[in-house]
Here is the input.
Amino acid sequence: MFLLGSAYPTTKLGLNAEIPPILFGSLRMFLVFIFLLPFCKFQKINKKYILPLFVFTLSMGTAVNLFLYLSVDASNIIAPIVIIAPLSIPLAILLSSIFMDEKISKIQWLLIFSSIFGVVLIGFDPKISEEILGMILIGCMAFFYAFAQVISRYLKSLDLMFTNSVMGLVGFVTLMLGSIFYEGQTIYNLQNISLDGWLLIFHHGVLCSIMGHTMMFYLYKFYPVGRVLPFYALFPVFGIILSYVIFGEIPTLLMSLGGLVVITSVFYLQKIR
Here is the structure.
């Protein structure tokens, strides 16, 4: 969870090092593809897996990275988006009830709504008026992250390394195209990435993605989404601590209360399952 939590403040460091956000995501996915490729068990894909694999790679490889980096780029402070990101947990439980026919109890509904209440509470903070765009973007990231986790359940028979290397390749190509056509000056930007910038990209691609997310995907193959994903709720604690250490950010009272409600709600979604 420390690795996942570190992604947000280190993204801000990378953006401060003048790495464009979409290019940042593309290079992250390139490292995922390159590092996982030697470990892939290449196999003939059954036709029934093609559509889920395509949807998964676009959701996790492209959309999640796109909205993650754009949200940090649009935000002045890290705490609100780190706190809102765990909404992927109640969203995943809702989506798993639709696609996987997993039942949602009354207590789970209560906790889902309380997590939403926590986000609403954060919205009343005066400092949030300048962070609305970042919060909307991280909300989109949370949705696609949750959607990708549910879709991954349809890919249980595929090799984990193969699935995630395809995700890296699709994410790299689509985001690179986005960087070329939207951000522009891609060659210039690549040539001017500093050593610190490349180290941050390595941190995101190898440590956060491969070590962090891949281990979680491994668990998804054997346990219900609603049982594994709540542990993802613990990463905001590390994200907020690192934001304080790196940037000196101190969450306001409303942010802290809202964050406590969100994190507690999604954590107990695991306890009652």
About this structure: The chain has one domain: 2-271. Residues 47-73 form the longest helix (27 residues). The radius of gyration is 18 Å. The CA atoms of residues 5 and 238 lie 5 Å apart.
